[in-house]
Every structure is written in structure tokens, then in C-alpha cells.
Amino acid sequence: MKAKTTVVMLVALSLLVVGCIGGDDGGDDVTKEEFIEAAAEVLVDDALPLLRAQIDELRELDLPADDADELEQLWDDLDAETDRLEAALEDDPETALVEDTFVDENAFAEEYGMQKCGGE
Questions:
Q1: In a domain, 14, yes or no
Q2: Burial of 45 (0-12, 13-18, 19+ CB in 10 A)
Q3: Minimal CA–CA distance to 10: which of 77, 75, 55?
Q4: What is the largest CA-CA distance in the chain?
Q5: What pTM, to 2 d.p., does this model score?
Q6: What total of structural domains would you count in the chain?
Q7: Overall average pLDDT of the 75-100 stretch
Q8: Is residue 117 part of a domain?
């Protein structure tokens, strides 16, 4: 059960990393570009280290013998996608924040039977 909960949290975090950047409701004269740059910095400084820590926790879990290779590949893919996202955030934050991220990894997790955040 811990593995399922941890992976669900990882999938939820991946959605938060890309789609749910909160803050105040405006009022300051901040340009879109300034906001995107600040949001990217928050993601790189706060969210991505948390995501990396969760991937490390997943690697420490005991895996079903029949699925170990596939799950270890998923952890590797999550690492690679996190690296790609970090580089994209540093190179072109505006594009990075609108690109689909963790699509294949989320699809595998769902197909494997891991629930989405709030799923049944």
C-alpha cells in the first residue's frame, strides 16, 4: 500500500509542478514573462528537489518480482523527465510550463493500476 500511495503522490506532484502555480491574485504590475521566470525558479528551487526525493523513496521500496524491471525503468524515466524539465525551466521557462510533462510515466502508472490523485 505504501508503494501505491507514494506513486500517487508522485503523479500528483508532477501535475502540480506543471499546472498549479499559486500565488496572490495579482495587483502588482508583473509581466507574464516575469511571472513565468519567477514560477520556474520556484519549481527548480522547491518542487523539483521534492520530486527527486520522492523518486529516491520509490527506489527504496520492495518491488513485486514480476514487475521489478518495469518499475525500475519507470524510476529511471522519472529521473530523466525531471532532468529534462529542470533543463527546460532554465533554458525556456515559458515553453517548459506549457509542455506535457511526465505523460508516458503517468500513463504507465495508470495502466499498472496506480490511482490518480483522488481516484478510486
A1: no
A2: exposed
A3: 55
A4: 56
A5: 0.71
A6: 1
A7: 88
A8: yes
3-class SS of residue 98: coil
- 36 contacts: CB under 8 Å, gap ≥ 6: 93, 94, 97
Q: How many residues are given for the chain?
A: 120
Q: 5 vs 112, which has greater pLDDT?
A: 112
What pLDDT is attached to residue 60? Answer: 96
Residue 18 lies in a domain: no
Q: Which domain holds residue 101?
A: 33-120
H or E segment and range at residue 77:
helix 68-91
Q: Is 40 inside a domain boundary?
A: yes
> Phi/psi of residue 98, each to 5°?
-110, -10
Q: Tell me the per-residue pLDDT of 15-54, one tens digit each, with 9 for 90 and over.
A: 555 444 445 556 678 898 888 888 888 888 998 999 999 9
What pLDDT is stored for residue 79 in this prediction?
A: 95
